Structures are given as C-alpha cells and as structure tokens.
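1st attempt posting a full record on here, be nice pls
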Amino acid sequence: MLILPNEIVFVQLYNIALKMRYLFVLDFDETIAHTFEPSPNKLDVAKSYSLAVREVLTEVGLGIYNEQGGLQNRAPQELVYDILASASDTQREIILYAAEKFLEANRDGLQGLVPKGKGAPLIWSDDSVSTVSELLVRAKLSYTLGEIGDEWPRPTKGFLDFYRSVDEHCDEDVAIDFAVVSSGHDLFIEKTFDTWGLKRPGILVTEDEIRGLKFPKEVERRVKPSAFPLALAHFKWMRKNRMMTDENIRDRGEKTKPRIVFIGDDPKKDGGMAERSGILFGRFGEQFTLSPGMRPNSFIFGDWGELKRKVHSAKEQMAQGLGFHEIILGGRRIYPERV
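the predicted structure (as tokens):
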C-alpha cells in the first residue's frame, strides 16, 4: 500500500505521542567530564579562567578575582558582575577601559568561538556585564578548545558506557533523552562529545545561550541556583517532542517533572536549582556510592554504571510512566513541587 507523505508525518507524530519520555539533564564540568584536571599542556578550566581574566580585565581585575577565591564555580556573567561590584570607581574605570581596548584589538580573532546566534554581539555597549562576560568567555575558549583531544578532558567514571547504553535502551515504548545545562559552552561540550565518539545531547542550555537572552535581566536569575536554566531545558524538551500546547504548558510541565532528573556535582548550585524546580537531584562524586542524599528528593552516586543498572532493570515500569524517584530510590517524592 502506498503511504503518502502526510500519512508518514501522522505516524511519526502518533509514535512520539505513544512513547513514555524521560529526560536526563546533566551538568558538564566534573559531572560528565573532568575539566578541572590539567590537560597535557597544564591547562584546566580554573587556569584558563585566570589567564582570560588577566588578558581581558588586566592585573587589576585578576587581583579582585583572586581575592574572591577564584572561580568558585561561578558562571561568567556572575563572575564579571562580582568583580565589577567589588571594584572601586578607579578600578572599575581601569577594567572597563582595558576590556574595550581588548575588544578593539581582538575582534576578528574572537569570531567563531561561540555558535552563530548565541552569546552577545562583539560590540561595546552600556551593558558592561554582558559585554565583558562575552569577551571573557571567548578569551577562555581560545585557550581551552585546542586542548580537547584523546587525553583531555577525561570522562567521569562509567559515563561513556552509561550514555551509550541508555541511548540504546530506547524502544517503541520508552524514549530517554539527554540535555546539558551548564555554565560551560556549546562548542567545548560538542567537541568533547565528538572526540569521545558520542552522539551530541539533543538539548543544550549553556552560558552561551543565556548571555544572548534579553530576559531575565537580573544576573542572579540567569545562573544557578536559579530555576531558570533548568526550566528552559524542560520547555525545550516538551516543545521538541510536541508534548504541550500554549494552553496546557503549565499542566504538562508539572506532570512531566517526575520523569526528569538533574545530575550535577555542586550541592549548592546544582542541587539548589533542582530543588527550586521541583525535580529530583542526583549529586555525582566519585567518592560516593548510590544512596539517598541528605536533602529530600535527592541521591548521591559515584559511578554512572549504578544508574545504568537502575534504568535497565526498570524498563517495564518506565513504559508505565514510573517516576525517576521510584526508579532510582524506590519511593515517591516527599516534598511538594516548587517552581
């Protein structure tokens, strides 16, 4: 029987609707990849930030950065905001003058380090936090992108097998999707996955995308532990898989939360974002074994193989829509959802 093109589309949509979909949302640095270990050229994320801060913000900015304890797991916009807020009027003037001159001297070389359509334009603007953050990110990437290879960054324990096997676990009844929510950067994450021979995550919400958005304007609402980055990934997932309409977006969002888990290494920033979102949080650290976390609706683990076994043993339950809390911890969530 001849199947017309519109009938093929209908069948595809029907199959999408029938599948029970699950979403793993992952942090990147020290959750997927050991980016805080030094590369063969002795570069890591922390070192590359120090070099970029000195290059863009001069020794004045670097001094403030070091006084604040260095990176401290801050997103670029957060880092720049904190430096400028702590600077004296004279220091601020020196930093911004140096950053503007850096842009004028390096504009051409900074192109191509961020995907087209993401990040902030390479023009000097009155929004100093946005502009300086863009320069800092691109300067940092100019150091780190070339370091990616067979030796660096190293995947965290069991991640490669977990990622491949869970992707293969999908069938006509269950679909398991991956998203990355990170203060890192698209090209770095994509190049790492390519180097490892892995399919790229279907959804990326990185600092590159957040910097290019007009709203929310407040820096603290743009970065972890704000719920916004995770909410954006949740929205993209539902829209990509036709799981909502304009009329039922809130209802569908709440109903799909039990089938989402966010995994990161920072209990304050990653865990706080998940808690504010009403989503199960898994804290990764290679010193842990799989067990319930200290806070409600959370768990800890140190080997992605532990999650692989949980997922593979729950195939029938997942086809019925069992939530991640039941799959991983064997019980229902014990505090109300919050947005």
